Known about the structure:
The structure holds 2 protein chains of 2 kinds. Chain A has 16 helices and 20 strands. In chain A, helix 2 (33-43) crosses helix 10, helix 4 (102-113) crosses helix 7 and helix 4 packs across helix 14. Chain A has 2 domains: 7-30 and 324-436, Succinate dehydrogenase/fumarate reductase flavoprotein, catalytic domain (Flavocytochrome C3, Chain A, domain 1, Alpha-Beta Complex); 81-320 and 441-507, FAD/NAD(P)-binding domain (3-Layer(bba) Sandwich). In chain A, helix 4 links the parallel strand 3 and strand 4. Helices cover 33% and strands 17% of the residues of chain A. Chain A has helices spanning 7-23, 33-43, 67-73, 102-113, 151-161, 168-188, 220-234, 303-310, 342-345, 365-378, 397-403, 407-411, 413-420, 476-498, 507-518, 537-541; strands at residues 52-54, 64-66, 91-98, 121-124, 141-142, 202-203, 213-214, 239-240, 245-250, 256-262, 269-279, 315-316, 321-330, 349-351, 383-384, 390-395, 431-440, 443-445, 457-459, 464-465. Chain B is α+β, with helices and mostly antiparallel strands. Among the domains of chain B are: 7-82, Ubiquitin-like (UB roll) (Roll); 106-186, Fumarate Reductase Iron-sulfur Protein, Chain B, domain 2 (Orthogonal Bundle), CATH 1.10.1060.10. In chain B, 36% of the residues lie in helices and 11% in strands. Chain B has a 5-stranded mixed β-sheet, covered by helices on one side. In chain B, a hairpin with a 7-residue loop joins strand 3 and strand 4. In chain B, helix 5 (145-151) packs across helix 7 (171-186). Chains A and B meet through helix 5, helix 6, helix 7 and strand 15 of A and helix 1, helix 7, helix 8, helix 9 and helix 10 of B.
Amino acid sequence: MADGYPEYMRKSIARLESTREERAKINFERMHADESDKLLKKYHPDYREEGKQKLKIGASKGEKVPLELLALLEAPSLIDPSKINLDQIDYDVDILIIGGGGAGTVAALWAIKEGISPENILIATKLRHGDSNSMMAQGGIQAADKKEDSPVQHYLDAMGGGHYTNEPELLEALTTDAPRLIKWHEELGILYDRDEDGEFIELPGGGTSRYRMHSSGDYTGMELMRVMRDESRNKDVPVLEFAPAVELLTDKDGTVTGALLMNLETNEYYVVRAKSTILATGGFGRLHVQSYPTSNHYGATGDGLIMGYRVGVPLKDMDSVQYHPTGAAFPEQVLGLLVTEKVRSLGAQPVNDDGELFVNPLEPRDVEAASFIRECYGRDKGIETPTGMKGVWLDSPLIDVLKGEGTVAKNLPAMVRQYKRFNIDITKDPMLVFPTLHYQNGGLAIDKSGATPVAGLFACGEVTGGVHGKNRLMGNSLLDFNVFGKRAGISAARHVAKASKGKLTLNHIESYDKALRSAGIDTETASPLLLPEYRGKKVLERHLDIEVTL
Amino acid sequence: MPEEKEKKMIDIYVMGRRYKVPEGLTIMTALEYAGYKYVRGCGCRGGFCGACSTVYRNKEDYKLKMDLACQTAVEDGMFLVQLPFVPSVRTMYEVDEVNPEKDDNILLEHYPEIARCVSCNTCTKACPQDIEVMDYVQASLRGDIDRAASLSFDCIQCGLCSIRCPADIKHYHLAQEARRLKGKYIDTLSKQLKERVKELDDYVYDEKFKELVKMTKEEIKKVYDKREFQKGE
């Protein structure tokens, strides 16, 4: 096998190996409460006050949000309203769904069940239909369907996990709809892991008091997403790919009446008029809040938050972000991939560039994550990767030293396989890890029907806030997009019967720009972001801003 | 921390043009380093979505290889191109209206071109997920939906199999239908789930929820702290 680690990392690994025998004997003392409090306040991203700022304008003025999001919320639109002709309507539909991930696709399918004809729906999505975080969810989906479990128990688990900040009516909807949605999945032909009697094989998750996690191998999200996309294709739902919305459209009263889309390849805009509009744009991991790597897909840039906020939808719990302590930091191919906590449970230690153990391996997750961050950015003892990020070693071979040869291979077969693909043998070499930005806990305010406070506008999935409060439990995000995708789809369909075809204006953009100016906000940024910037610095420095016409 | 000079630079050829990039990047991040901004050809960046199908050839090798740009490291002298789109057709069907028990071979009916499979195994060699693609095509041909579904479970629908197939089979669409038929018609469904849905239809939990949603933070915290955990199995 070729060597998966570059030569400079080998030197660091040699330092780690030289201390392994001594380290094996060390039982690193756990932090005292005041010590960990201090650490969290200084290094955990959610506690870093300098990482957030109060919004100066809009429906959530005075609320704190991460700076990376603030920069986009407090920025003018990408478009100049005076240059847009809204008289030429390209798509005139009953329901416009912005976002072709799990939430948007579920909404389309339930709007059809509610009586909307597929040709009167339009799904507009930034990348391809199905390109979303939904596709990437591995672990599973929660639903209380076993005798020893109940929706009440599910509600309690999620409420405590969310530090009692969840919206009760949203959480009630989430937990009581759950079994019905799994039933719908059976009707669609979604594959789940089952025992010989056809009962689901269910597992526990962090913070769940019952075995409630349904899964489909470790491709649960992909299985859900590909089946829903297949069903949407069978129903012939029109989908515009590579056509993100750049702004919503409103009438003179502020009711949402459609959206302006952009063809990402020709830069042409399309005007869509809709009686109901659903924002299902997903999360914001690709904003790399506080420079974190992310487990999110390429298009997760929080566009829906920007567009929704501009028409007046308030934000809920937007100050909290979910990080997981051990995301893979190297190789680049698995960057952000979750490394299971079991690796540390079995005895692996976190080790810095000098070969030192610097924290008890089994501190609570937020404390563990904060200590990794301190090691890399407070003490400068992290290991830099070829792409310029930093991480600490997780000394997996130590497990075999402590528990006997073959323990890693036997207990962590999936991890062994995952790394082997990149010529790293974790039974012999350590893994490089760093916390990874995993989920946008907060988002646009909705009620239990999936309606936002702004007329004509609905929202569902990761773009919304309130369901999970300030911390989401594992297995509740796949459930979220099912429950609220369904609810938003049905509500949007019912709204169609009441709504007339609206006038199209960009008045709200003009007033938002005015509010920006009154607040003295002057910025080079324009939003939404649409796609993150990953091009090499050297190339961008020599970038010529010339449009080539053929 | 590595010095800039310690990072070894290698040559890659993007659609024939040479760029110098640091070793240890994926095909995807190497293209970005070189100055390309993705619109097409990039999705989850984690090996789940099949957006970044890539065809490449290694230095001094005549063979064309296939893989995912986000999951493959660049190598010195690699010639590569990414596929922005796979123009394949699929068959529309109503999952509620087909019946594998009555119908002899739905998959063959919906995808008659599978009968043209010459067992060349090119599809299997093209698969970045190491799926036995040809075997599930053969299983479909025999009407063995269960096996076709199980063999194809890891499919990310990148389309590389279909791009390479001399018989123009649309493997990944065929497999999608097989899996749904298994999930709906072959797998035994859950009785406990059915009972729980019945309870919900009968409003069994409504009273309890009326209490719960009204509780103050302190009240619900007390209930939460008293929860008993299900014992491990």
